[in-house]
Amino acid sequence: MTTVKIKVNYHFYLHHEPTKTLIEKLTWTQMNSLCRTLRSGEWADWKVWVAELELWFDLTDLIQEILKRSDGLFRKPPVPKQGKDGRTMEHQLVDAPEDMRQHPRYEIKLPVMLDITGSLINTFTADISESGIRLKEEIPLRKEISHLFLYYRSGNSLIEFKSRPVMEGSSKLAFSRLQLISCNHIDLWRSLIKRAAQDSENLTE
Fold it and tell me: Phi and psi of 158, rounded to 5°?
C-alpha cells in the first residue's frame, strides 16, 4: 500500500473509472467530506490525482488517512439527530418575517467572523435583530454568492449562522446586511436579543 502524507492545502481530482467521470480541483475540506459519503465497496472505483504532487493514487491507498483526520476542516455540517420523527436538527431555521425591519434592531457592536466560501473575515456588527445583522463595514465580494456562514462566540459557546447577504443598490458584489437563515444555538441568540432589548429600555428610562 502506498503511503503519502496529505497536506490540508493540497488540491485533489477524483476520477470515477466505471463512468469515466472526473471531479476537478477539490479542496481538502471537499475531498474529506465526499469520501465520507462513499461506501467501502466503492473505494476501488476511484483514483485520486494530488495536484501538488502531480501523482495518481488509488483511493484505497489514501482513504484511511483521509477518514481518520479532521485537521484543516472549517466546520462540520449540520447532521440530523433523527430522520422524520419531528426532532430538530443541529441548525434551526430563524423565523424571518417578509420584511426584516419588522423585527426591532438594536445597536450593538459584536465581534464576528464571516466564512465566505472558505475565506475568513473578522469584523463587527453595527446592529442586530432576531432575523438579521448589519455590519460596521461593507464587505466586498469577488463573485455573487447565495449564502455564507457567520460566527459569534458567546462565553464558551460558538453560535453559527447560515446567512444570506442582502445586496443594496445596484452592486451585487458588496454587502453590509445579512438575513439569518438558520442557527445552531437559536435559544442563545434569542437570549442575546432579549438582553439587548432590556439594555435599550434601560437607556431610555
Answer: -105, 115
- Is this structure's pTM higher than 0.70? no
What are the pLDDT tens digits along the chain (205 aa)? 556 788 888 999 999 999 888 998 888 888 888 888 888 899 999 999 999 999 999 999 999 888 888 776 655 444 444 444 443 446 777 765 555 556 788 999 999 999 988 888 999 999 999 889 999 999 988 888 888 999 999 888 889 999 999 987 666 789 999 999 888 888 899 999 998 888 877 655 5
Picking from 112, 116, 155, 154, the residue whose alpha carbon sits closest to that of residue 133 is 112
Question: Do 171 and 143 contact (CB within 8 A), yes or no?
Answer: no
Residue 165's CB is within 10 A of a number of other CB atoms, namely 22
- In the chain, DSSP assigns E strands to 12-16, 21-26, 46-50, 55-58, 92-93, 106-107, 111-116, 119-128, 132-140, 148-154, 157-166, 174-183
